[in-house]
Amino acid sequence: MALLEVNNLEVSFGLRQGAVKALRNVSFTVERGERVGIVGESGAGKSVAAFSILNLISRPGEITDGEILFEGQNLATLSDKQMRSIRGNRIAMIFQDPMMTLNPVLTLGQQMVECLQAHRKISTADARAIAIEKLRQVQIPSPETRIDQYPHELSGGMRQRIIIAIALLLDPVLIIADEPTTALDVTIQAEIMELLLNLCDSNNVGLILITHDLGVVSQITQKAIVMYAGRIIEQGPTKEIINDAQHPYTQGLINALPQQTVPGQRLNQIPGSMPSLQAIPSGCAFNPRCDFVMDECKTRLPEFTRSGGCSVACHMVRAMKQNPETVQPVDSSEEVK
């Protein structure tokens, strides 16, 4: 049994003009100790998928269909009280901005001790000792001193390490990291991602990494999920997707990476932009931006087709499988270093 199994998940938001679907038929699994990347542009539905797992979708949003099985239990049907025993305990989340996550008027120690005591019957002294050990694990220097400091006394990289330490406090089996390095400079980003990778490996913790950067996904994850307009359009082993992308959108994301461009030339980009949830095109949502669009793409939603170890929702890929001579294939990209 998979650690996490998401089946046919749908999330809708009620608006005055009517309900719009932010997620449509989203299905994927995460095994114990597995690292999974969810990638796509802003508005693809990545964060909504993450919040849905923890049942953090607030009104007017709601889960309208599907199931989220965590260790065999459907999280979509649990009450807020039942979910509180899972959030931060069995499943931890690392948010984008550490200053929005940490309480500025409490010391790090107060916040970490409070988190431990909310889930365990433990003395303040024991909780403080565990907190110091977790700070040491995330390579915070002089943790015995740092634990009594306030968030504003730390750098951005240090604050993000604190957030990771808090996520590890209760030894979760799954961590969801939502753009964990967005606000950090490039060198600190690399340090944080390496730290997260090592901690997951050493503790056999599953990781869902949400990002817009396929370069990060290629270095950290074992499986990649590509989303567009609230739907998964390609998923499979990360190495296979990076080196032989099948969906034109995935290919566009790879071609937009800086290392895919000749120095001195303009970066490649996908023309157009992500459609609004209120105006998703008929058929394949990517068809207005696709260089390989066919008539069928504009009228019918593509079903998933197996291509190697990947599943791809693309009419062109399906047509290539049925009759390779009549369809122009997507060019394979060079291997991303």
TrEMBL record:
Entry keyword annotation includes Nucleus: no
Catalysed reaction, written as an equation: a dipeptide(out) + ATP + H2O = a dipeptide(in) + ADP + phosphate + H(+)
Listed Gene3D superfamilies: P-loop containing nucleotide triphosphate hydrolases
Pfam annotation, one family: oligo_HPY
Molecular functions (GO terms): ATP binding; ATP hydrolysis activity
Subcellular location: Cell inner membrane
Record's keyword terms, sorted: ATP-binding, Cell membrane, Membrane, Nucleotide-binding, Transport
Residue spans crossing the bilayer: none
Membrane topology type: Peripheral membrane protein
The ABC transporter domain, residue ranges: 4-254
InterPro entries attached to this UniProt entry: AAA+_ATPase (IPR003593), ABC_Ni/Peptide_Import (IPR050388), ABC_transporter-like_ATP-bd (IPR003439), ABC_transporter-like_CS (IPR017871), Oligopep_ABC_C (IPR013563), P-loop_NTPase (IPR027417)
GO biological process: peptide transport; transmembrane transport
GO cellular component, as recorded: plasma membrane
EC number: 7.4.2.9
Protein family membership: Belongs to the ABC transporter superfamily.
Record protein name field: ABC-type dipeptide transporter
Native source species: Motiliproteus coralliicola
